Amino acid sequence: MTTTVLHGGDLVDRHGVEVGVGVDVVVSGGTIREIVPTRPAGDYGTAELVDATGKLVIPGLINNHTHGTAFGPLFPSGHEGLPHEQVLANLDRHLLEGTTTVLCVDGFVTAEALARTDDAHPVTVKLASCNTPACLEAATIADGGGLADENRAFTAQRAVRDGAVALGEIGAGHTLGGGGASYMYIPAEVARRTGVTITPRQSNALKVAVLGRHISASAFDRDAVEEALEAAGLAGKLSVEDTREIVSGIILPAFDIALAGLTEAAEEARVAGVPVLVHNAAASMTQVAGIARTDVRLIAGHSNHSSFELREALAHAERLKELGAVVDVSTLDTFGARRLTTGPELLYAMFEAGLVDTISTDYAGGHHDAILLAIDHATKAGVVTLPDAIAMATENVAAAIPGIAPGRGRIVPGAVADIVVTDPARLDRVGVVMIGGAVVVRDGRRV
Ligand SMILES: [Zn+2]
């Protein structure tokens, strides 16, 4: 049995050594055997040594909200699946960001396709399902272009029997008029009609002008639509009425069904004994709060969603927490692309208020920021401590979703050796990733 020693690193593990400076993590047979004050390299004989001097050693990240990470339909709208190379590239990206386990919340992926994905890549990919009757109907109306018979037949109940660890993502930016509508469906239809390519933010402004943040036909604001058309360079090319028809036609047909799907899926999850992971946004907050009052375990996904106003999001998350829900935040595209989010204010406010249980990425139109990048910025801003933030991306996730990463999420003797070595000065500069005791990333590259 080969032994590998992560040599001389500084350990972050909230319940173990707070920050243990200069330790050796000894791994063999895929398991962490011991953690000891660093010894001379020669003491380890023939063991493989990985130099971690001056680096931070943290558990592999467990990301509970990803899309495009399994072969099969994309998103809970059943969109046509990505090419397999793109799925593997997405998994590479998660891996190089220090993630060792992802939960794919596309929701219509079959267990068989999930297993093929998991076999094709070192990152552990876990299954979730959103295939309840109302969610399937909403997907079919909103898109459904990637749904084959086998996906439709692979119900949430079957998925749980075949290893799904949660139901989710229930509701989504594509069926509830969120990000998916803004970066995908609305720009596509506007381009088809006018030949003009608009940005996700311009599209979002049109959407809010027509339906408001909470998605309601009564929120229609003619002046705001005119302004948004002008700002998007569409004045004279698209009328206010046409805009109303496009936006309403894309979002409203699936919307009420998708809302009903939230409650339906929560009940199915309760019966199946798995958590339900929901799309928590301004448009779904009433239903999400309703689910929190029942006794299913609720993961309130991306509770820093850009459709919320800051105070609204904080008050809502506080209520959800009081009701026993797990409050998740997503990095979205907060620090990088900023196509839909405008900055970290809400994310930071959630940290500062002590409301955050878990951190994920979500998809952000393929532009998600790395979890460690968000933690790097947030810890430097002083809104969360490093051990707490690391726990939000590791052990808290393992605790919130019992099947997602058994025996993982901690660096303690006996745990599965999913470990990341990174730069304390720039946490997103991941050097080494070990999964199940095997080094799969070295010097920031796949081996
Ligand atoms: Zn979502």
Automatic annotation (TrEMBL):
InterPro entries registered for this protein in UniProt: Amidohydro-rel, Metal-dep_hydrolase_composite, Metal_Hydrolase, Metallo-dep_Hydrolases_sf
Pfam families: Amidohydro_1
Presence of keyword 4Fe-4S: no
GO MF annotation: an example: hydrolase activity, acting on carbon-nitrogen (but not peptide) bonds, in cyclic amides
Keyword flag Metal-binding: no
A GO cellular component annotation in the UniProt record: cytosol
Domain of life: Bacteria
Annotated ranges, domain Amidohydrolase-related: 238-438
Names of required cofactors: Zn(2+)
Keywords: Hydrolase
Protein name, per record: Imidazolonepropionase-like amidohydrolase
Organism whose genome encodes this protein: Actinophytocola algeriensis
